[in-house]
Amino acid sequence: TGDAWNIKQLRGKSSEDLHKLWYVLLKEKNMLLTLEQESKRQLRPMPSPERLEKVEKSMKNIDLVVREREIALRLLQTGHEKPVPGEWRHDFLGRTYWYTYKEWPIPWYLNKKYKKRKFYYLSHVNHFIRLRLEKSLRRRARRQNLERTRQKVLKRKFPHLA
Description:
Layout: H1 7-11, H2 15-41, H3 50-78, E1 86-90, E2 96-100, H4 112-116, H5 126-157
Antiparallel strand pairs: 1-2
């Protein structure tokens, strides 16, 4: 039970080695989670729970290194860091969405269909944008309050499990 694999060590490994290491860590994680569940079932503390944290940190670092390599490869091949080139735009109702760039057979300034699309909203829409934001915040607060209430009811019903 050594330290977790750090990013510097993982950057020196080949993609094949990273793939093998990922599956070794996945098997180890599954074994540790099984051990943790068995310990809970027997009402005993899990032996060396820090191993699970080390495995999860190593897996997170492998994922980070693989993502770095994918971005570097995509940057070399396409010149874009993001997998799908595009930008954030607004529709006429003020909603923000991801616009994916497409290849058009004619330039955008000659394309009548593209010209009809509006990527902006008028000033009188600001009021409704604020109302939509307030509604979503109210909905989130209501959900959190409901969850808090459920937790209190469960603690009242089962005080010995809290």
